[in-house]
Write a structure and sequence with these properties.
The protein has 24 helices and 22 strands. By secondary structure, it is α+β, with helices and mostly antiparallel strands. It has a domain of 121 residues. The strands form four sheets. The chain has a six-stranded mixed β-barrel. It is elongated and about 100 Å long. About 1% of the residues have low confidence.
Length: 786
């Protein structure tokens, strides 16, 4: 049976259905975003963990030193389930006419290794009777269109050795094919991974086995054990050690997972805050307008508890209407996102689960937001004094000149309509503040989404256009002298070539170690631009290192401090002064000028690679073909290909942020529409009075529009500032030694965002302005006289 108060509730909601729908829609969006983001986070985390367990992904990887002795010292421990040695070597690979840098990883031919197993997706595993059999990592196979039975060549001791692909595999180490922590992004045409028989891997590197991989009992991370084993390994000469979390591929993917987790909180909080504010404004307006009715209800026996529950219902109903379908939609959307993500990255194990807690939590937070918004107005309604309420009297403004009139006296002589608009802003501060808050929240949502897109695009342009000035990198089969580097300029289309020495190093300070790459470059290099943390351009110094800014915090070093740099390939450690920190979006590397390097080693240094720049209008395909045809060239890396690769991988990110932007625009419209509708509805009596004394409806519409747009204009600067601050905090949360996400928002983004708010505010007034044309003056005047 429907009670009188329930009947009144649904009747009022029918009369104000547009505002209630707007609140429900905003709650729907907030809850859907929460459920989609959090379930995606849980699905992806579960998929990774299942992959790590099923394929026994190493908890600790140790490179260099006496690997046999290190491995033997770990055997028999209760907290270590498996330990194995292996050979890993970067070698040139040739597929048809294409040369690229490959990574060959040794596997036992008889059976899968005890640590870091692979999943065969095509073909078979290695054959112990065939030393020429290899397994190709799936990303590389897809790029070159290779299938089992196809062949490729590996450079072995200066000559090309043909091998046969017997299987295509995925690996927990290369879900994301990262070459290193400093080169997380590598084009599949420039870098790829093949798994070869242990006997072949040992032939490719004289240092074999050169890695130890350790899998802990149960497979769970153990920071204390990792620290103990790392210290012992370094004492035995190891130069590069990383945990599962620090492994390049996993570290890069962890940033994505972190993003889903943070989005699951960040965006929904904004949406639900906006929904709560919209509901609060709407219900507060109803309570204000229904004071006489509330007085009659209380005077005729309705308890204050009944009145309280009644007005809380105005939040409860749209809360349920938005939260339940929002939670369901979010859970379904998470399944789509998870499938797209795991399919794009070829994750070996994909788990898509149903998490009842997400569904229930989504509904609960949507309801809590709506009910809390309704609670304050409902308490106000329950405390109404019947005698005062039934009079229908409300305090009126003082009618004094507006602030701008008081500050700038000439504004006192503007037409009466403009005075009405300016004075209306101050006459009802509550209404003005609500509208400004709505504008601020809307701009925060829009700028956070749009700012992410601007920042990523700026990051790519900064790294690959402003900082990295080369068009390509030529990798040599063996270190060469400067003369061979200069000879590359004879290749048609090459305008300039500079020597580059690339060395894996470990930088150590009193607080710890950091494994990275050292680049030795020409002091007056034209191929690379160095930018300080203050944004100024700096040059490579005569003495000392330039290092990535993350090392300032990781190692606790400052400019002028000495660090020990261990260069494993040369078997030496040198002490170098930190000359400065550079701000680069991708990676944390170290730079040394050739004169400084020569002074440290006491002689000339060779080049392992060359940075090249093309002539204007050069045929890049022909240049690559010519360069890779040279016998001294092992591989060629096209800088533009990496840029294009990153753009393609960002498509899913852009899609996700684009959805956020659309949701934000929808929320902005709902929020501002609600505020504008309430603003106009609250002034029905005032408008009716003006109509009764002869003011034209079109004039009143202009006055009301002008007042509302002035309020929006007041809110836009505050919203732009708040949006920038929130967006900066959001981007900073993604920064690490792998990526430096500094916020960048294009000036035009601010302009378009502000214009969008003005358009949304203008359009959202139309329903209210139409209502002005339909006002029944006698009825409103009669209501006023009761």
């Amino acid at each position: 049976m429907v009670t009188p108060l329930q009947h009144k509730l649904f009747r009022d909601m029918g009369r104000h259905k547009a505002q209630f729908i707007a609140v429900a829609l905003t709650i729907f969006l907030g809850v859907a975003l929460y459920a989609a983001s959090y379930d995606s986070y849980q699905n992806l985390s579960a998929s990774y963990e299942a992959t790590f367990t099923e394929f026994r992904f190493a908890n600790l990887t140790i490179a260099g030193g006496d690997t046999g002795e290190i491995a033997d010292s770990m055997k028999g421990r209760a907290d270590i389930e498996s330990v194995a040695t292996r050979a890993v070597v970067d070698v040139p690979v040739r597929i048809g006419d294409v040369k690229l840098l490959g990574r060959a990883i040794g596997l036992p031919s008889e059976a899968q290794p005890r640590v870091n197993q692979v999943k065969v997706v095509q073909g078979t595993y290695l054959d112990p009777d065939r030393v020429d059999a290899v397994l190709m990592e799936e990303h590389m196979a897809d790029h070159f269109g290779l299938v089992p039975g196809d062949s490729l060549e590996i450079l072995d001791s200066g000559s090309w050795r043909s091998v046969i692909v017997v299987g295509v595999v995925t690996s927990p180490e290369y879900i994301w094919p990262a070459k290193s922590r400093q080169e997380v992004f590598s084009a599949p045409g420039d870098f790829g991974v093949v798994f070869v028989a242990e006997t072949l891997a040992e032939q490719l590197t004289p240092a074999a086995p050169n890695e130890v991989v350790v899998y802990y009992t149960g497979g769970d991370p153990d920071p204390a054990l990792s620290e103990e084993l790392s210290q012992a390994a370094r004492a035995q000469g190891s130069t590069e050690i990383y945990t599962r979390a620090e492994q390049p591929s996993n570290a890069a993917l962890a940033e994505d997972i972190k993003g889903f987790e943070e989005w699951a909180v960040f965006f929904p909080v904004l949406f639900l805050a906006a929904a709560a504010m919209a509901a609060y404004v709407m219900i507060g307006r109803l309570v204000y307008a229904q004071r006489p009715q509330i007085g009659v209800m209380v005077a005729n026996g309705f308890t204050r508890w009944q009145v309280l529950r009644h007005y809380v219902g105005y939040g409860l109903v749209p809360g349920l209407a938005g939260a339940i379908p929002g939670a369901i939609a979010g859970v379904l959307l998470a399944r789509v996102i998870t499938g797209l993500y795991t399919g794009m990255l070829s994750i070996p194990v994909t788990l898509i689960g149903f998490y009842p807690a997400t569904l229930l939590t989504g509904v609960l937070i949507g309801l809590v937001a709506a009910v809390l918004a309704a609670l304050a107005p409902a308490l106000t309604a329950s405390r109404v004094q019947p005698a005062l309420a039934m009079r229908g009297e409300t305090p009126s403004g003082s009618g004094r000149p507006s602030v701008i009139e008081r500050i700038i006296p000439p504004f006192r002589r503007v037409p009466a309509g403009w005075k009405m608009a300016m004075r209306g802003i101050e006459r009802n501060p509550r209404r003005t503040v609500y509208t400004i808050i709505g504008v601020v929240l809307s701009l925060v949502l829009v700028l956070v989404s749009w700012g992410m897109i601007d920042s990523i695009q700026h990051l790519l342009d900064r790294q690959f256009v402003e900082i990295q000035r080369e068009d390509g990198t030529v990798h040599f089969v063996a270190p060469v002298a400067d003369g061979e580097v200069a000879g590359l300029e004879d290749v048609a289309g090459i305008a300039e070539a500079e020597p580059l020495l690339e060395l894996p190093v470990s930088v150590a300070a009193s607080t710890g170690h950091y494994d990275t790459v050292l680049y030795v470059m020409e002091q007056e290099t034209q191929m690379h631009r160095f930018l300080s943390t203050s944004g100024d351009r700096v040059d490579l110094p005569d003495e000392g290192l330039l290092v990535g800014k993350s090392l300032e915090d990781i190692l606790g070093v400052e400019i002028g401090d000495e660090v020990d740099v261990t260069i494993a390939p040369l078997g030496m450690t040198i002490s170098v002064t930190v000359a400065g920190f550079v701000d680069e979006p991708l990676g944390t590397v170290a730079y040394l000028s050739r004169p400084a390097a020569e002074a440290l080693v006491g002689g000339p240094v060779p080049a392992t690679a060359a940075l090249v720049r093309y002539e204007q209008g050069a045929d890049t395909a022909a240049i690559r073909s010519t360069l890779t045809g040279l016998p001294q060239v092992a591989a060629f890396q096209d800088a533009n290909a990496i840029y294009d690769l990153m753009q393609s991988f960002m498509k899913l990110f852009y899609l996700f942020v684009g959805v956020m932007l659309v949701f934000g625009a929808a929320m902005a419209f709902a929020l501002i529409f609600n505020s504008m509708s309430v603003n106009i509805a609250e002034r029905r009596r005032e408008i009716a009075t003006l109509l009764a004394v002869g003011v034209e409806r079109s004039s009143i519409s202009r006055y009301v529009t002008a007042e509302n747009m002035l309020v929006v204009l007041l809110g836009i600067p505050l919203g732009l500032i708040a949006g920038y601050l929130v967006a900066r905090a959001a981007m900073a949360s993604f920064s690490s030694d792998l990526f430096s996400f500094d916020l960048y928002i294009s000036p035009m983004t601010y302009v378009w965002s502000a214009l969008a708010m003005l358009v949304v505010a203008f359009v959202s007034q139309w329903p209210g302005l139409r209502a002005i044309r339909k006002l029944n003056i006698p009825r409103i005047v009669k209501e006023r006289s009761v």
